[in-house]
Amino acid sequence: MEDFQEHFMGQEEFNDGDKPLLSPFNPPFRPTRLHIQRSSICSRAYFVVVMVFFHVYILNVIGLLLYVHYNNGPGDLVSRDGATSASVGDSGSPLPHTAAASPSGELHVEDYSQSYSLPRIEGIRVGHVQQVSLVPDKTHEMRTISLKPLLFEIPGFLSEEECRVVVQLAQLKGLMESQTTVPSQGQEESNQPLLSLSTEEVFSLLDLNQDGLLQKQEIVSHSRSRDGTWLSPDSLRQILTGVEDCPTGMLTLGDFRRVYDVSQRTGQQKSRKLLSQFKQRSKHTWLYQGQGSHHVLHTLRNRIISLTRLPSALVELSEPLQVIRYEHGDFSNAHHDSSPSHSETTCTHTRLAGNTSALTEVSCRYLTMLFYLSSVEEGGETTFPVADNRTYEEHALVQDGVDLTDTQETCGRGNLRMKPTAGTALLWYNHLSDGRGWMGELDEYSLHGDCPVRRGVKWVANSWVNVDPDHQQQARYQRLVAQRHQAKSGMEEHYQPLSHSDLHQDL
Ligand SMILES: *[C@@H]1O[C@H](CO)[C@@H](O)[C@H](O)[C@H]1NC(C)=O
Ligand SMILES: *[C@@H]1O[C@H](CO)[C@@H](O)[C@H](O)[C@H]1NC(C)=O
After folding, report:
1. Which of 113, 296, 461, 498 gives the lowest tally of CB atoms within 10 Å of its CB?
2. Distance of CA 193 to CAs 189, 202, 265, 397, Å?
3. 199-267: CATH topology
4. What pLDDT sits at residue 31?
């Protein structure tokens, strides 16, 4: 008891600041012993050392967590070399559990729903400028043009030389008419009624590996190049049904004749009201940007990845680069690049992973990057008729005889017009966020069109990033592609029709 009191007093004494306030009752040796204890446990120096260790430890833990996070980050959803573990066996089963057992750095399917998200660039306010670093030794300025849609302008995204190369590659590949009145050039993606092609020609074009048989994968591959193309979703579905009904799972030319009457088809059936009135006149082509493509095209895609901060797998699995040439008077009416999601529609780009039964296929494009490859002397602006409008009503687009989607008549009346300047890029989001980090509703304000060119020639390129609003479907699709790549590297001689490379091998 007394001992304790003494100890306590000793501490008091210490706290009072090392004044040797000795009680007369204390034996002389006690303070010394207490002093040793005090200096070892309670001194400031000791405290500092402990705190430093503690902080270093915490920093280490944080560092380790960050390291793990970035190494398993969303960008690695599809591992590049297709080493996606054995879990990809069944495309239909949702989120197989075996995936988590794969070695680190590979696909973690179970984490998917929590961790996989689509970054969005902050607009802050109209006129806000942010610095972005896309190439070494240079920063670009990105200016917020509007918030509805979220639209940015980046001058000098492409150098003059790069613009020239892209235009020349497009010319080398050959441009197709995007309009319906000029004779077809026999190209795959011309908008012509199929009447101008014979059954043999159609069959041969569909038969990607030229083995004289139509496989399911070939039909599925064609759904990718659908935009403004000669095969409507209806036709593709009809052929696909034929393939599936066939016991061998393949169609010969003879079977094809029975399944699909080429002469019957005279064009595309458009499903949406806005699309049914969609008019355009221009020439276009598609440039593949993946492995083996021209380095400028490759670089361009990498710049899109660094600018948008989207998972590289998403960008790499998106549509090829579309290059368009507008001559005098050429235009496109206002339209949306993407589609509203309904239960009865399915995304074209992920259709392989989904349900090939009676659904309408639509383009699902999270964002658009538009590159001006030339400057235009007069006209040819990109118009956003309802950008940052207070409200949006589809019926208000056509009022008092003024149709805001009709760029030939009303380009001057839209809310926003961007003048083409060579090298400048525009980036806009076609979809809102769903509030949980994934792609949400179509942003109706993203309506845009091309004013008629008055003087000069306008060259632009479009790069779209395809995302399925159903993120499980997107994940299934990416697993399938990874699986394909794996199979492809395994047995080269076997035909693996899925990625764009099969469709756009030439450039
Ligand atoms: C395919 O679609 C049908 C009809 O919409 C539906 O009943 C079925 O569950 C779907 N299958 C898959 C795998 O999504
Ligand atoms: C644009 O906003 C105005 C003001 O709210 C509205 O009257 C008009 O209908 C809107 N335009 C469209 C196309 O919705």
Report:
1. 113
2. 11, 12, 7, 30
3. Recoverin; domain 1 (1.10.238)
4. 44
